[in-house]
Amino acid sequence: MPTLHSYDYAVIRVVPRVEREEFINVGVIVSCPGARHLAAAIELDEARLRAFAPTLEIDTLRPWLDAIVAICDGDPAGGPIAALPPRARFHFLTARRSAVVQVSPTHVGRTAHPERIVEHLLDRMVRVPR
Fold it and tell me: What is the mean pLDDT of the chain?
């Protein structure tokens, strides 16, 4: 029987008008401490985002979204937060914010394949079904 690992995840959202609380999911953050796995992935559907928020400057989002991935990867480009232990980075990234880039509340799951969970969550939470 395969080992099941517990993981936490949050969905990364773009909230063009914070006061309206409308958003588009653009990525995920996954923390699986048992497998020593912390990862984020972004898939920005620019056409969909432009249709949803025509006045939003997409290029202003990119540095913020890139920073999330850099922090998860422990990349120095993520600044001092990227040097923290993985769980501390996850908790920093999933803290509630009132900004254009936000994350959902955290959720939990279990998997035998932690390396596949990011792709699975992108399919379920971010990508538009075909």
Answer: 95
The residue among 119, 64, 120, 117 whose CA lies nearest residue 93 is 64
Query: What mean pLDDT do residues 8-14 have?
Result: 98
97/89 Cα distance (integer angstroms):
15
What does the angle CA 8 – CA 126 – CA 77 come to, to the nearest 5 degrees? Answer: 65
Q: Please give the model's pTM, rounded to 2 decimal places.
A: 0.94
Question: Which residue shows structure tokens 């990508």?
Answer: 127
- pLDDT score recorded for residue 3: 87
Q: What percent of the chain has pLDDT over 70?
A: 100
